[in-house]
Design brief:
Mean pLDDT: 96
Subunit structure: Homodimer.
Cofactor: pyridoxal 5'-phosphate
CATH architecture of the largest domain: 3-Layer(aba) Sandwich
EC number: 3.7.1.3
Structural class: alpha/beta
CATH topology of the largest domain: Aspartate Aminotransferase, domain 2
Bound molecules: pyridoxal-5'-phosphate
Strand content: 5-15%
Radius of gyration: 22 Å
Protein name: Kynureninase
Helix content: 25-40%
Distance between the termini: 33 Å
Number of helices: 13
Strand order of the largest sheet: 4-10-9-8-7-5-6
Order of helices and strands: HEEEHHHEHEHEHEHEEEHHHEEHEEEH
InterPro entries: Kynureninase, PyrdxlP-dep_Trfase, PyrdxlP-dep_Trfase_major, PyrdxlP-dep_Trfase_small
CATH class of the largest domain: Alpha Beta
């Protein structure tokens, strides 16, 4: 049996523990939802206030040059680049993950169409994040391509063939925390003549990502999850240098023009990844994102992403062990992989107890009961038709999650299940955001 004392000993031994001080975390809160919205870095409020009062308030329009606002998409991109295994100048920060996916998937489809018009299929997972599937579906309406959804990760290689244009995956699946083998799947895609588009929403800043070494073609990622950039933070996109200048992306705006301030009536795409920009960067949000990315870079002298990954696995392993030791007999099932190499930075539990849960569902009610006890995880609705169970998700963020937090979270989960308090009506009201 693992005791709370054991968890405290792990914290005392943890080289990354001092990084928690970089964040403002409410007292007594166990926050296991950094995979949905990362916590606030202490530096952010001061930095954003400075940009507002000085750069904007005093500098006004002159700050585009004087404060370097124009360069923010590349400058922050260069800070994210080493976190995902690509070179400086290859990645830009812009727009949202959904919009960036639209841009890179369009570009990948255009490259494939030019090479072989018979390649019209985008292969993905049925359990991929819905926005990714919606974007692919809507591109399909425009370009006449179709979406082929695979139910089990093992079936992905067999789904690739002469009609496949693109393999589009989220590296760590949002529902089940499964970490795909990017190198193996990229190789399988290339062997079948397909290109790969990777969504790094749950992997950038959470697991070491090696886009270049693993043979990826295009990637997008999210700024407000493990990069701690704040709600709705700008996202990023990357195209392999061999592709970046080969196609137009469909949202050709003036910031992607080779000479934005020439104000020419005709579009000339900038070389490289800069053409993936569209309009004016959101400077305030960029300032917040940069503070978030800096918190990850602060881990560099302490071992960087390798140390973050090692601690993440230790945290999720502790979570799994404790659930097994302490929460038996209530019908919880692990929905995330038990094998370390296949698990991202979250533990997912399926829970669908009897109908006494009411309309909102048992898993939803358990998450609400935990939130009332100051343990924040989240709930993701399943879909019986597609065989997807309701899920409780618990994300760990090694920059600020402590081993004792994991112990406390599982203890609260145990109490919620043992007392049956999740069945109370007050835990069955669904809000807009789950
Ligand atoms: C969080 C997430 C997104 C978010 O997209 P937005 O455009 O920021 O709303 C997209 N894809 C995946 C896989 C995600 O996990």
């Amino acid at each position: 049996m693992t005791t709370r004392h054991d968890a405290l000993a792990l914290d005392a031994d943890d080289a990354l523990a001092p990084l928690r001080q970089l964040f403002q975390i409410p007292d007594g809160l166990v926050y296991l939802d950094g995979n949905s919205l990362g916590v606030l870095p202490r530096a952010t409020a001061t930095r954003v206030a400075q940009v507002v009062s000085q750069e904007w308030g005093e500098g006004l329009i002159g700050s585009w040059n004087a404060a370097g606002w124009m360069a923010l998409p590349q400058q922050i991109g260069d800070k994210i680049a080493p976190l995902v295994g690509v070179g400086a100048g290859e990645l830009v920060v812009a727009d949202s993950t959904s919009v960036n996916l639209f841009k890179v998937l369009s570009a990948a489809l255009a490259l494939q169409r030019a090479a072989d018009p018979a390649r019209t299929v985008v292969v993905s997972e049925r359990s991929n994040f819905p926005t990714d599937l919606y974007i692919a579906e809507s591109l399909g309406r425009q370009h006449g391509c179709t979406l082929h959804l695979v139910d089990r990760p093992e079936d992905i290689p067999a789904a690739l063939g002469p009609s496949t244009a693109v393999l589009m995956l989220t590296q760590v699946n949002y529902r089940n925390g499964r970490l795909h083998d990017m190198a193996a799947l990229s190789a399988a895609a290339h062997a079948a003549g397909a290109l790969t588009v990777w969504d790094l929403a749950h992997s950038a800043g959470a697991v070491p990502v090696a886009l270049a070494a693993d043979g990826a073609d295009f990637a997008v990622g999210c700024g407000y999850k493990y990069l701690n950039g704040g709600p709705g933070a700008p996202a990023f996109c990357w195209a392999h240098p061999r592709h970046a200048s080969q196609a137009w992306q469909p949202l050709a705006g003036w910031h992607g023009h080779a000479a934005p301030f020439a104000f020419e009536p005709g579009y000339q795409p900038a070389p490289g990844i800069t053409r993936y920009l569209c309009g004016t960067p959101p400077v305030l949000a960029m300032a917040a994102l940069e503070c978030g990315v800096d918190t990850l870079l602060a881990a560099r002298p302490l071992g960087g992403m390798a140390a973050i990954r090692a601690k993440s696995l230790a945290l999720t392993r502790l979570f799994i062990d404790l659930v097994q030791q302490r929460c038996g007999g209530h019908g919880l099932q692990f929905a995330s992989p038990d094998v370390d190499a296949q698990r991202g930075s979250q533990v997912c539990l399926a829970f669908s107890a009897d109908s006494a849960a009411g309309q909102a569902g048992a898993a939803f009610a358990v998450v609400q009961a935990l939130i009332a006890r100051r343990v924040v995880g989240d709930f993701r609705a399943g879909d019986a038709k597609d065989g997807l169970p309701d899920i409780l998700r618990f994300g760990v963020t090694p920059l600020y999650t402590r081993f004792a937090d994991v112990w406390d979270a599982v203890e609260q989960l145990r109490q919620v299940l043992e007392t049956g308090e999740w069945r109370e009506a007050r835990f069955n009201q669904r809000g807009v955001v789950t």
